Amino acid sequence: MASKPYRTRTFRAQAPIPTCRNHPAGKATSVRQEDDDVMRNTPRTTLRSRRRAGRALAVGLAAVMSTALLGACSSDDDDNGGGNGDEEITLRVGVFGQFGFEEAGLYDEYERLNPHITIEQDSITDNGDYITQLRTRLSQNSGLLDVQAIEIGNIAEMTTELSDRWVDFNEYPDVDASHFLEWKNQQATDPDGRLIGLGTDIGPTGICYRTDFFEEAGLPTDREEVTELFAGGWEDYLAVGEQFAADGPDGVAFLDSAGGMFNAVVSGYEERYYNAEGEIAYEDSEAVATGWDLATQAAEAGLSSGLQQFQPDWNQAMANGDFATLPSCPAWMLGYIQSQAGEGGEDVWDVAQSPVPSNWGGAFFGVPEAGENKDEAVALVAWLTAPEQLATFFTERGSYPSSAEAQQLPEVLEATHPYFNDAPIGQIFSQASADVPTTVIGPYDQQIQEGITDGLVALEQNDLSPDDAWDDVVSALDNAVAE
To answer: How many angstroms separate the CA atoms of 168 and 218, rounded?
Structure first.
């Protein structure tokens, strides 16, 4: 490629602080990192438009990232995404965690193209708190911001129970949603065909692994050879784990957690917790049964570290090198690994193709019907989620584009990650994205996922049998998701 901004020392990789087990709401973060600028694992605080103080820095970083890309975004000041007139307008954007668009400099760029627009962002650290507030405000049609982010685990609720509280992007002729992946648009489309959200990112998965530990176990380390090791399916992956347990370094588990194993398996199915008719069906789901069996097999064979993902001891285990693989490793996870493993993990972590590609995570932007500046808000959302801006979002923050067109831009397709042995992440995740199934998502997807994961944590940490752990899961979910 002619320009290699993502192969330099300024490769920015600021990791998210996850806010829920279904999907770390801070997303994965960036693809480039200054050596002295890795985000530490510190709790997020509510963000209320701190951009002004750091505007010069943000613009400078964006310029370093790729002048060619920004040129593509802004070469024609008349192509400004739709701001009309000279009236001064403030657009308020509500997000959860460190969503990334502000940090990527995209708000600044939009304001430059539209001088009469000011963007203010409100961020609530935890998506659970964010969605509770958003749900209440939508129900009351009061207190809503001009633009609101929606996490993938909450999109089904928004397209069913609260669909009429959102604008339909199909009604805006200047909004072109055809560049998004078809399944991404389907997720945000209600039963009446109304498109209530435009996709920001998705989470196509690979398998992240430690080459140093693989070498000690007598396993291949080249990513293509590792991909071939697992090509037969998750059973092959666990078979490699058995070999690793026998020949690998002492004190190093093959994989991080039974919950991670379950998520990797179940996410590769079209029907997981709901069936095609939209009914809760996790007890009879082939995906859940297969995922549970493989996850408990890994736990009982001693292949897992027995930790709960995104908890402090899991973070510490990653820093210490206490496990060799992450079976579900979406694009956004790379920045998280880098932030936790630090210098000691550089060039020893790598990423291979998953035997069964899936999607973990992603989000949308929607515009509430009760907003004060709906036309301007729609124009902003359409611009932020256009292919060129989503490519910037990826190169700056590591969040893989939900736009099929953006995925084919050189900035994305040719991207490599220096920390991961220059892994061709653009190609790896592009291939995974092409094979992601269209998954049925229901209003209680998050609760069911968390309930099952909690059951696997209890199995590993409290020495429960798979049957007893499953009975506890069903009992808890019967109360949590009663319809």
So the answer is: 56
Helix (H, G, I), strand (E, B) or coil at 260: helix
Residues 6+ apart with CB under 8 A from 56: none
Contacts of 43 (CB under 8 A, 6+ apart): 17, 125
* C-alpha to C-alpha distance for 470 and 295, rounded to whole angstroms: 12
- Integer Cα distance of 58 and 338 in angstroms: 21
Strands 117-124, 47-48: pairing is: antiparallel
Structure-token pair, residue 268: 């590769």
Which helix (H) or strand (E) segment is 323 a member of?
A: strand 323-330
Nearest alpha carbon to residue 97 among 164, 209, 15: 15
Question: How are beta strands 323-330 and 253-255 bridged, if at all?
Answer: parallel
Closest by Cα among 435, 455, 24 to 268: 435
What amino acid is encoded at 359 in this protein? Answer: N
| pLDDT single digits (tens) 370-394 | 999 999 999 999 999 999 999 999 9
Structure tokens at 89: 């307008």
Whose CA is closest to 203, among 405, 399, 411, 21?
399
Extract the tokens encoding 475.
Answer: 């009992």
Longest dimension (CA), the chain: 70
Q: Which amino acid is at 415?
A: A
**Cα–Cα dist 260/308, whole Å:** 9
Q: pTM for the complete prediction?
A: 0.82
- Centre a 10 Å sphere on the Cβ of residue 290 and count the other Cβ atoms it contains: 16
- Give the model confidence (pLDDT) of 326-355 as tens digits: 999 999 999 999 999 999 999 999 999 999
Beta-strand ranges (E) seen in 74-159 are 89-96, 117-124, 147-151
